């Protein structure tokens, strides 16, 4: 209470810990606004409990075909507010990137 700006800096649990703690995780898109709940149990089967989604993203967007955005992860950790799961330096870096388009993929 009263320290919303501070949150818990350095909080970057593995997906195993998130499952134990009941943290909900969402994949979100930087462009199209799609948001989808991540099934941690399925993800742990693929990646293992020690995998972390912190400061991680996928390019390009997997939720809307042809979307040039990237998918990042967010959690409901702070009072039910969906908050990006990354540190602020990484957030700034991603947001300041030029929107380059690779010629490899089809539109
Ligand atoms: Zn998208």
Number of extended strands: 5
Compute the CA-based radius of gyration. Answer: 15 Å
Query: Helical element count?
Result: 3
Kindly report the oligomeric state of this protein.
Answer: single chain
Order of helices and strands: HEEHEEEH
Give the N-terminus to C-terminus distance in angstroms: 46 Å
Shape: globular
What class do helices, strands and sheet pairing give? alpha+beta
Low-pLDDT regions: 103-107
* Percent strand: 15-25%
Largest sheet: 5 strands, antiparallel
Which whole number gives the mean pLDDT? Answer: 87
Helix content: 10-25%
The hetero compounds bound to this protein are: zinc ion
How would the blueprint of this fold be written?
Blueprint: H1 15-21, E1 25-29, E2 35-37, H2 40-47, E3 57-58, E4 71-78, E5 81-84, H3 88-95
Antiparallel strand pairs: 1-2, 1-4, 3-4, 4-5
Note down, in words, how this protein is organized.
The chain is of the alpha+beta class and 107 residues long. The protein has a domain of 64 residues. 21% of the residues lie in helices and 21% in strands. It contains 3 helices and 5 strands; from the N terminus they run αββαβββα. Strands 1, 2, 3, 4 and 5 form a 5-stranded antiparallel β-sheet that branches. The N and C termini lie far apart (46 Å). The chain binds zinc ion.
Brief overview, please?
This protein is α+β, with helices and mostly antiparallel strands and 107 residues long. It has three helices and five strands; from the N terminus they run αββαβββα.
């Amino acid at each position: 209470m009263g320290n919303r700006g501070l949150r818990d800096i350095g909080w970057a649990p593995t997906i195993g810990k998130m499952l134990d703690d009941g943290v909900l995780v969402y994949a979100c898109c930087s462009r199209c606004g799609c948001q989808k709940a991540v099934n941690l149990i399925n993800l742990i089967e693929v990646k293992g409990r020690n995998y972390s989604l912190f400061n991680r993203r996928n390019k390009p967007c997997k939720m809307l075909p042809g979307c040039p955005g990237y998918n990042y992860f967010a959690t409901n950790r702070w009072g039910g507010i969906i908050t990006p799961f990354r540190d602020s330096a990484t957030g700034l870096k991603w947001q300041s990137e030029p929107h380059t388009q690779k010629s490899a993929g089809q539109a």
